[in-house]
Amino acid sequence: MFLSRQFLTLLRASLLFARLEAILSTQDLYMEVTSPGTERQIKNAAEFALFMGRMVRIWHVEVKDWLIGKLVSANKTEIIMEIDGAERSFPFEYIAKAKLVNT
Q1: More confident residue, 15 or 80
Q2: Domains, the chain, ranges and CATH?
Q3: Are 82 and 72 contacting, i.e. CB atoms less than 8 angstroms apart?
């Protein structure tokens, strides 16, 4: 089961675990909580939408360097980042890699 951290706190996870134990009538369960890390890779358009408002860095294939800025919006074809106070759009075909920035 995968649940986003936006919706699942540690308290909610423990309550969910207790309910699953009761529903399944067993205590032979375990729960593992993981995190992709503070500089997780962003893999697709749907993940960009989850991180709007956060700082990200993208590897631009034409610039051949990392660009860092605040993710303003994302759709199926591009993202818009605020870099040095200006909004810039980046089509996905020019983004080789993307990561959250640890702030």
Answers
A1: 80
A2: 1-34 (no CATH), 45-100 (2.30.30.100)
A3: yes
